[in-house]
Structures are given as structure tokens and as C-alpha cells.
Amino acid sequence: MDAVDTDREVYEDLRPLMISIAYRMLGSMSQAEDVVQEAFLRFHRGVPAQVASPRAYLTKVTTRLAIDELRSARARREQYVGEWLPEPVLADPGAGVSEQAELAESLSMAFLVVMDTLSPIERAVFLLHEVFGYAHAEIADIIDKSEANCRQIASRARRHVDARRPRFASSPHQREELTRRFLAAAQDGDVEALVELLASDATLHGDGGGKAPAFARPIRGRERVARVVAGLTRQARRMGLRQRPTTVNGQPGAVYLDSHGQLINVVTLDVADDGVHAVRSIVNPDKLRHLGPLGDINALMRGQ
């Protein structure tokens, strides 16, 4: 097998894992793809035959590049308009069908928001160990710290995450039924039904990034969330948007399309046994471009 074939085989075998790690690190598919592309370029330039373990090498480079990107993103985030949410994905780009259920929680918007409260190093250690099963000795080499230090970081990060870990419905059937009823009530603008389906501490989050209309801060409380969701869906109907239920980041949600089938909005739900705890709406076009052709929500609103 020549070098080109070796490179191609390594790429096809390991790219899904690298994308899966990078996306969970960064909460951005576009940045994850850039990081993984750079990692493979470095692998190719580094003479693959001299790399004892392509998986170890690519994990190290991908993780370190993601850590660097996170550090620079923190500074950019201070200038971000409104609430920041991760870029949505409609399927896990790094997992096969058999892995979807196992990795679904770590892909969820709620989980990625919790990850964003960790430092870049804590995030890397937690994800590599808790989600992807890397040993502390492997992680120590990746982030250039001692194994004992990695264990301390992992323990601290685990306590932090456990205190904030999102709750999800224990029964897939219950989750699907609650989601179906919630989306139907939203589509009908039925405030009373929405109140019944929302948890008492329900929160509505919106990310427009200054590029599209969105509330500046989260809306809290089931009554307020119900009224705002009903109002937004009435507005969506006036703009001719069509709701299509789907899976967003491994959790129930929906996409909203204009009359040409172009994407306008992605919504994801946190559904627990006692109802819908969070609704997250992403309309920032910069975070939706990777999902396909986009419509223009600002033009639609002007045309009402």
C-alpha cells in the first residue's frame, strides 16, 4: 500500500472520531471541520510512516488545535450580540448508528452549554475520558500534563458537570409523545396546552448573533415561555414558515423552512419526565449555513 492509500485509509477511518471530538470541544461544526482538516494536513506533512499511532497523533493535534481555538473564541465571545448557543447538527457526524444513543447526551445542546462553562483544558480532559474513553495516561500526553494532574482536572470537571448535567426523559416513547404534543400546541398557538407541557422552571433561549431577531437574554417561567412560543409560532405562520419535526443534536426538535424549502430556524427541546425544560432557538445564519440553503428571515419579517 503506497503513502496516498495509507493517508486515504487513515482519513476515512479516523475523520469521524476527530470530527466528533472537535465538535464537542468547540460547539461549532464549521470550526470543527477546519480543525480536523488542519490536523490531517499536519499528519500528512509529518510523514505518516513515522507516526506510530495515527489515532493518538491525530487526537493530540485535533485536541490541541481545539484548545487554542477555544481560547481565542473566549475573547471573540465577549463581543457576541445576545445569547450564544452552539451550532446545531441534525445528526452526529462522528458516530455510527450503533453509537448514536450512547453519544446522544454528549451531543445535546444542554450538554454543550454546560461544557462551555469549563476551561478549555477541563473540557478536553472531561470529554476525552468521560465521553470517548481515553485513559488518563493517554490524555496526559495529549495535553502535556502529568497523569496525576489529569486525574485531578477530570475529577473537578466531573463534579462541575454533574451539578449542572441536564435531565432527559427516561422513556424514549414519553419523550417522543411530549415532543409531538408540544410542537402541535406551538403550531396551534395554544398557550394553555403549552403551559401544561412545560416544566415549572422552563427556559426559552434564542441565538440571533445580531444577524437575525432574537431576545437578548433567556426567558424564564412556564407562563412567559408559553406566551412567547405561541407568539413566535403565530408570526412564523404569517411568514409562511413550515415546521418539520426532526432530531437536533441527538434530542427532539424541529426546523422551520420558508416557502422555497430554505432553512430559517432550528429549535431543540430538553424534554424530561415532568415536561419540556428548555427550548433553544437558533436563527443566526452563520450557525445554520452548514445545514443547507438558507432563507432570509429579515426579508420575511419586512414583508409581513
Topology:
Elements: H1 3-26, H2 29-45, H3 54-77, H4 100-107, H5 109-115, H6 120-131, H7 136-143, H8 147-164, H9 172-188, H10 191-197, E1 198-207, E2 219-220, H11 222-238, E3 242-248, E4 251-257, E5 263-272, E6 275-282, H12 297-302
Parallel strand pairs: 1-6
Antiparallel strand pairs: 1-2, 3-4, 4-5, 5-6
Helix pairs in contact: 1-2, 1-3, 2-3, 3-7, 6-8, 7-8, 9-10, 9-11, 10-11
For this entry, give a set of tags.
304 residues; alpha+beta; Butyryl-CoA Dehydrogenase, subunit A, domain 3; six-stranded mixed beta sheet; 54% helix; 14% strand
Question: Quick summary of this structure?
Answer:
This protein is an alpha+beta fold and 304 residues long. It is built from twelve helices and six strands.
What features would you describe in this structure?
This protein folds into 2 domains: 3-164, PhyR, sigma-like (SL) domain (Butyryl-CoA Dehydrogenase, subunit A, domain 3, Up-down Bundle), CATH 1.20.140.160; 172-302, Nuclear Transport Factor 2, Chain: A (Roll). The protein is α+β, with helices and mostly antiparallel strands. Helix content is 54%, strand content 14%. A 6-stranded mixed β-sheet has the order 2-1-6-5-4-3, with helices on both faces. Helix 6 crosses helix 8 (147-164). It has helices at residues 3-26, 29-45, 54-77, 100-107, 109-115, 120-131, 136-143, 147-164, 172-188, 191-197, 222-238, 297-302; strands at 198-207, 219-220, 242-248, 251-257, 263-272, 275-282. The chain is built from 12 helices and 6 strands.
